[in-house]
Structures are given as structure tokens and as C-alpha cells.
Amino acid sequence: MSQCLDKAALDQWYALETENEIPFGTSVNRLLGTDLTVTRSNDGTLVVNAEGRAEPLPLIHRFGLVWTTLGTPAGGLFDLPEADEPDRRVVNCGTVAVRASGLRIVENFLDLAHFPFVHTDILGAEPHTEVAQYNVEIRRDVDEVWATNCQFFQPQAALSASEGIMTDYIYRVMTPFATLLYKTCPNAANRWDVICLFVQPLDPDRCRAHPVMFLIDDVSTTTELVHFQQLIFLQDRIILENQRPVLLPLEPRAEIPTRADATSIAYRRWLKEKGITYGTTMMAA
């Protein structure tokens, strides 16, 4: 695959690896069609180099991950105050490789309608298949996509849930390849659980997903929480790797949306406004 020429995609921060899983010595990685080498010295210092570049890449250490960029982002990472609340569990759920466009993965994350059919008896179940009307907006002050007032009945909304509940959701897309959701917390009525998905595009049609959760849960073990989240994501991967086209269509009427796809419609419009083409069918245009 050729290296990325999409400046809008280059000028973003990307999660590269869970920091405590990076081995000592030199390992290889990849981002936007560019091969990387990651060097961890004996004192833990990390240096990331990109093929064809003399200077190391800039790094940010946040959410238990190492982030880097091949371009010149306008600023640092997005704000996430919940990540700094002392009573929250920070659960890094590993890395999952997916043979699909990273943008397809973000869009799938935003889709309520697939819950009963892909995550049956966990995040949804028949006959509770209707997606109630919700609100979507592109928040110009922060340049993010938000979907609010989302509700869905879930047999097991979280690992700690003891019975089915009507779950409230808020979706937030911070960058083209980084998204999260706030959802009803079974253990604290006035707070939200936060589930993030940070996507690392290797090539237009291959990526790695880094799920991270910030939870109010003092009962479940870390292993149980990771297994629960990985189960959900691996169910999604089966669907994602069989979607056609593999790249995300941005052309009008390339795919026919329904009322439930309001977030997807806003997301695609936002990508087009930004000039994102990497991982989309517009690359060949």
C-alpha cells in the first residue's frame, strides 16, 4: 500500500499501542501506510521513528496508550474529564486487528440498530428492535459529532448489570478515527460509564482498534471486563470484515440510510467537510 497523501488524515493524533504492552528493544508498527519502528530503552523511554524520516515522531501518553502523528495536528488530544476521576476503573481492552476501513469501524460503533441482531441477548434482543428518534448535531465550537437522547433496551447493558434495562446513550466523535459513548451506569444512577474506541488505520482497508473503558464498577475483575468488551468487538468484526465495499462510501446515495442512521449521515458529512479521503471510496476518485 502507498503512503497516505491525505493531509486531513495525517494531521490527527492516533493511538499506537497500549503503553505497558510495548516490549523493551525494537518492535515494528504501522500507521497510514507508513512503517514505524518503536524503541523502548531499558529505562522505559520510548522513541518512534517513521520510515524515511530522520526525526522521531512526537508522542503523547494518555489513557494508558501511546499516541503519535505523521502530520501537524492543530493541538493536543481531546478533553475527557472522566478519565481523571479517581474512582473510575481504567480498562485497556487490548488491540484487535480488523480487515476493514477504520472509518467503517467508527461508523459501526455509532450504530444502535445492529444491537439485537449482532449482539443478541447482550446489547439487544428481539422484539425490541426499534431505534427511537434521537438528536444529532455537529458541534462547531469543538468540531465534534454528537448524538444525544439515544435509548435502547438491553438484556445486559454492562457486565455488572443484573437484569435488562432501558439504556441511555450519548455518542461523541472527537476525530475521524476516535469515538466514544457515554451510557447508563448500572452502579451509579447519576453518572455515565464511558467506552472509547480509538482506531489506528494501518492501510485504507486494514486497521487496529484500541478499546478503552472508564467504568464505575468495583465488583468485576479486570479480566472479566476485558473479556466482555472483546466479545462485543469480535462479534462486530465478523460483520465489518464482510461489508462491501470495504472502504467507506462518501458519495451521495451510495448506501441508502434509514432514520436510525442519523449519526452515520452526520459523520459522513463531517468527514467530507474535513476533506478526509483515507479509508473512503473517494481515494479512487
How would you characterize this protein structure?
With 285 residues, this protein is an alpha+beta fold. It has a domain at 78-272: Naphthalene 1,2-dioxygenase Alpha Subunit, Chain A, domain 1, CATH 3.90.380.10. The chain has helices spanning 7-10, 102-109, 115-118, 222-240, 262-274, and strands at residues 14-18, 25-31, 34-40, 46-50, 59-62, 65-68, 89-92, 96-98, 135-139, 144-154, 165-175, 178-184, 192-203, 206-215. Strand 2 and strand 3 (34-40) form a beta hairpin. The radius of gyration is 19 Å and the shape is globular.
Secondary-structure topology with pairs:
Elements: H1 7-10, E1 14-18, E2 25-31, E3 34-40, E4 46-50, E5 59-62, E6 65-68, E7 89-92, E8 96-98, H2 102-109, H3 115-118, E9 135-139, E10 144-154, E11 165-175, E12 178-184, E13 192-203, E14 206-215, H4 222-240, H5 262-274
Antiparallel strand pairs: 1-6, 2-3, 3-4, 5-6, 7-14, 8-14, 9-10, 10-11, 11-12, 12-13, 13-14
Largest sheet: 8 strands, antiparallel
- Please tell me how large the radius of gyration is: 19 Å
Query: Helix-strand pattern, N to C?
Result: HEEEEEEEEHHEEEEEEHH
Q: How would you state the average pLDDT, rounded?
A: 85
Helical fraction equals 10-25%
* Poorly predicted segments: none
In terms of structural class, how would the helical and strand content be classed?
alpha+beta
Overall 3D form: globular
From the coordinates shown, what is the CATH architecture of the domain at 78-272? Alpha-Beta Complex
Can you count the helices? 5
Strand content: 25-35%
CATH class of the domain at 78-272: Alpha Beta
CATH superfamily of the domain at 78-272: Naphthalene 1,2-dioxygenase Alpha Subunit, Chain A, domain 1
The span between the termini is 17 Å
Number of strands: 14
Could you name the CATH topology of the domain at 78-272?
A: Naphthalene 1,2-dioxygenase Alpha Subunit, Chain A, domain 1
